[in-house]
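To illustrate the input format used throughout this study, we show a single complete record. The first block contains the structure-token representation of the backbone; no residue identities are included at this stage. The design step must infer an amino acid for every position from geometry alone.
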């Protein structure tokens, strides 16, 4: 697999993981016991830490990308293993 493909997969994994991690560990101002600023939405995060989120997303995306590339190289899981309907996708039913 070319390094550019691995980089593209890593960027996609990082984006997906970052969006999946966004709601975890975030508390509103009411939950944190912090005074709200005038005009602030009730659901606005009071303790958003973008650096921590980026670090976690980087580590998790690196692991997921490594597993994906290893599966690509060694073929642990193939399309035939994902055949849940009893026929391969793209082939007409017999």
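Output of the design step:
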């Amino acid at each position: 697999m070319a390094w550019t493909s691995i980089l593209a997969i890593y960027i996609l994994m990082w984006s997906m993981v970052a969006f999946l991690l966004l709601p975890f560990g975030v508390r509103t101002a009411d939950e944190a016991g912090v005074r709200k600023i005038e005009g602030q939405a009730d659901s606005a995060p009071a303790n958003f830490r973008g650096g921590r989120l980026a670090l976690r997303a980087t580590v998790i995306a690196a692991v997921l990308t490594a597993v994906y590339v290893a599966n690509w190289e060694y073929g642990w899981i193939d399309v035939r293993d994902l055949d849940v309907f009893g026929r391969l996708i793209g082939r007409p039913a017999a």
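Structural context for interpreting the output: The mean pLDDT is 88. The chain has one domain: 3-82.
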